[in-house]
Each structure stands twice: as C-alpha cells, then as structure tokens.
Amino acid sequence: MAANPKINSMQSSEWDLVITRVFDAPRELVWKAWTDPKHLAQWWGPKGFTNPRCEWNAHPNGTIRIDMRAPDGVVYPMSGVFQEIVEPERLVFVSSALDENGNSMFDVLATATFTERRGKTSLTLQLRVLTTTARAPQHLKGMEAGWAQSLDRLADRLAEAVAASEIAMVSGDREIVGTHLFDAPRDLVWKMWTDRYHVAQWWGPKGFRTTIHEMDARPGGEWRFIMHGPDGRDYHNRVIFREVQKPERLVYEHSPDKDSEPVRFVTTVTLIEEGEQTRVRVHMLFPTAAERDHNVKTYGAVEGLRQHFGRLADYLQKASAENPGSPA
Q1: What is the pLDDT of residues 83-121, one digit of tens each?
Q2: Has residue 42 been placed in a domain?
Q3: N or C: which terminus of the chain has fewer CB atoms within 10 Å of its end residue's CB?
Q4: Final residue of a domain: which of 164, 180, 210?
Q5: Bridge partners, residue 237, by sequence
C-alpha cells in the first residue's frame, strides 16, 4: 500500500520545484485528502508537525489559513487563496508564508495535478516562487525536504484509508466482496443501513440521488428505490429482504420485475463490532461469473461499492458532528 518512495525534483529557477509522486490509492481518495480540511490537517507539514488551525476552502477564490506547529511548539502560519479547481484533476493556489506580524515572507504558486493510473494516482506538484523578502531563503532552502515529508505523511494516511476499505472480485468465481471500517458504533451503522430516511441520504455512487418508494426491512419485505444518475438516467431497483438479524446481519436479493433493472444477485451485509468502530463486510453473490462480470462492466459494481462505502462514511461523520452522542 506504500506510495512510490522516489520523489523526482527539477529546478527551473533557484527555488522552483517540480515534484512527482505515485500513490497506491484511487484518485478520488487522493483528491479528497487534498480538498477536505479534516483530512489535510492530518498530513500537511513535515514529520512531527501538527495543524491546530486548518482553514482550507477548496473552491475558486476560496481562502487558506493554516497554522503549522513544530514539535518544539513554534507556529509557522500561512495564508493563501485558490485560483483554480478542476475536480478531480487539478488544484491551483497561491500560498504565503507569514512572519510574526502577519506579513508575507514569500509567495508560492502551487499547481497539483492528479492523474489516474490503473487504480493508483500520480501527483505532479509544480511550485513556483513568485515573490521573496530578505527572510525567505532561510525557509525556502527547506521547501523540498518539507514537501517530501508531507507527502510521506500523506502516503501513510492513504495506506490506512485503503486498508480500511478493501474490495475485490473473487478470482474465477461469482462474487464481489468488500469490507470497510467505519468510525461509528454498530447500532448507528445498522440504523443508517436500514432506516429509509438515512439510506436515501447516502445510497448510490458519487453524484447519484436515491428516491425510496418502499423499504420494509424484515424477511420477505420489499425495498423499491430509484437511483438517479448524474447524467439524468434513472435506475429502478427491486430488492427482497431474506434475513434481518439486528444489528449483525442483512441478506437481501435483487429480484427484478418488468419495471426494474435486469440484475439478480444476493447481498449479505455483516456488521462486526471492533471497539467503538464497526467493520462492515458486503458479499455479493451472482448466479454466474459472467453475470458478475457484466454487472462490473455495465454498472461499475466494484467502484460503485467503494463509493457507497465512502458516502456512508461521510454521512456518518456528518451525523455524528450534528448529533454528538445521539444514535441519529
């Protein structure tokens, strides 16, 4: 899961840098680590640094303010502004290292480009120093090493995230199996997976909306819903619950009729307590290997499951923040 340890640097002027790094993580995950301030605060800065203040508004003209605290307690503030956001391909921003009076010591134009490479992500980071003051050189001489350590920390965070969510097609068989470790108690995760109001908030791949017409989460009960794709296409689904063992296990079957998508498979969802966290295992069993492969190719079943997990994780985090200590 580790990122490529090699960092290639080319100097186009005295301080400018071009850094290339390959991460063993999908581009969507790397993009999120760069655009969500909660995630960015976990890896930004050299080894041992923390970010008690991390305001990172990743949208055009969005502002940046980060206070990096060194292991010795010294705080290094920076400000900035975003110039361009092209999700999930490109970020452009200008950052300013501030002195004790809040004045810029130097300004850097940063362009981060994210390229997908068969499930991995290549990051190219171009850093161009725009302005300097007399105090700039003492800081700029450590810029390359500082970025190297920051990207090492990012690699570690991405490896943890990838390990928490593992999805695979079982070779030569009829299955897709995925697991994800959610930072929430099992009762809450169960509710999010079985309460129609909550399910409608996160169900479906990124960019989809879901309308639930019926959700009777008991053996023999029907679940009818429509997934509205970002391209305007609607996907009608009919599901029959086979087993419901609160809060441990759900078994349901996609059982199509004339009004729903022609897909048929059985899903088993298992919720396992791991302290205050919950590991969810999703096992999808298709009638044949060919039908599994058709669903992967036509409906993006593997990537779709990964994005389902991501949306549920985000929704759980939001629900916990809005209702601390509440089962939502």
Answers
A1: 999 999 999 999 999 999 999 999 999 999 999 887 789
A2: yes
A3: N
A4: 164
A5: 225
CATH code for the domain of 282: 3.30.530.20
Average of per-residue pLDDT values in the chain:
89
For residues 24 and 158, is the Cβ–Cβ distance under 8 A? yes
Among residues of the chain, what percentage have pLDDT more than 90? 66
DSSP per residue, 77-116 = EEEEEEEEEETTTEEEEEEEEE-TTS-EEEEEEEEEEEEE
CB contact at 8 A, 29 and 158? yes
In Å, what is the CA distance from 109 to each residue of 8, 33, 178, 199? 19, 20, 40, 42
What angle separates helix 143-164 from helix 27-35, to the nearest 10 degrees? 120
CA distance 122 to 321: 33
Across 255-261, average pLDDT: 81
Amino acid at 113: T
Model pTM above 0.70: no
- Nearest-angstrom CA–CA distance, 85 and 62: 10
- Whether 327 is in a domain gets the answer no
Task: Give the distance between the most distant pair of CA atoms in the chain.
Answer: 75
Last residue of a domain, one of 164, 179, 208: 164
Full residue range of the structural domain in which residue 238 is found: 170-322
Residue 161: the pLDDT is 78
Q: Which tens digit of pLDDT belongs to each residue from 192-206?
A: 999 999 999 999 998
Is a pLDDT exceeding 90 seen at residue 33? yes
- Residue at 2 is within a domain: no
What whole-number distance in Å separates Cα of residue 207 and Cα of residue 276? 30
Burial of 71 (0-12, 13-18, 19+ CB in 10 A): exposed
* Cα dihedral 317, 323, 324, 325 sign: negative
Same domain, 123 and 178: no
Beta strands 249-254 and 277-285 are unpaired
